[in-house]
Amino acid sequence: MKIPKLKIGSITADIPIIQGGMGVRVSLASLSSAVANEGGIGTISSIGLGDVEASKKEYERISREALISEIRKAKSMTDGHLSVNFMGVLSNADDLIKSSIEEGIKMIVYGAGLPMKLPDLARDPSVNLVPIISSARVAGLILRIWDQRYEKTADGLILEGPLAGGHLGFSEEQLAQPEAYSLEKLLPEVLETIKPYEDKYGKKIPVITAGGIFNGKDIARMLLMGASGVQMGTRFVCTEECDVSQEFKQSYLDSKEEDIVIIKSPVGMPGRAIHNHFLKDLEVKGKLKIKCPYRCLSVCKVEKAQYCIALALVNSYFGDVDNGLIFAGQNAYRCNKIVTVKELIKELLSELEAE
Predict the structure, then answer these.
(1) What pLDDT, in 10s, does the model give residues 156-175?
(2) CB-based burial of residue 169 (10 Å sphere; 0-12 exposed, 13-18 middle, 19+ buried)?
(3) 20 to 30 Å CA-CA from 290: which of 1, 112, 123, 346?
């Protein structure tokens, strides 16, 4: 297969690969710039950049300054395409989005919440807005509201299936039957739903599939089904440029298929993670003591939460995996070595061309 370019609004990437925005601190300047340098779209995660001991006001200032620092660092390392990923449930999401745009970011990826006010936050027409969706119904809802309120449509959509890592846009019941909600079933429905908006606005709305994409063969399958590109997260964790600790990466390498489990996150959504010492210990203790001075997540019920997810993810980032949560995609157990981003993308493209 000939390798297609990926056009999202005003952005044209040389290869149809977006590196997923992984928090907390998994995808920062080092990883995102490396992907951008190889012709893909590198993504900085805006999630969890604040000091977990700070007050709310200090947290918002620190996280804003930290994100700006990562954007500037990444831009100093690449002339390629960069995006920033946001969770709608972040209490300071709007502030971080505005800061990213002020720093010259041209692609905003928005998940874990419906981005109904996003066009109002990003009025610059050169900024490309890409919501993460999990169904044709959600895609239709977003596009309809944007059309009615703003006379605007999305520049792209990331369709995240049930095999993705981290927080998932599916119920636990749906995740128990992933075949019924596979990308192969969801993608045609989304393509049909967006067609009226493509016709009205005279532009293609590229759909980028995500969740369970592991190799070039998977990429080819998605492209042949009508996707414009893919988003990959798990494979990029096991790269030298990924910003997490070696212990975090080793957890991927050591994992077995049965270690990849669905958890109930304090965010109120199901999530996929590695069943490590932290989760096993939690099953015995039931609940950990939580100190939450800043409420980073608007939906987190601190009094009911089993643990502080921000602290658990930061612990893993620093290498304290026994006291940390490790998000991972369903195929994380298939990772068996640490490679450079250049080596990984070369392998993926070689596999894609062979299809």
Answers:
(1) 999 999 999 999 999 999 99
(2) buried
(3) 112
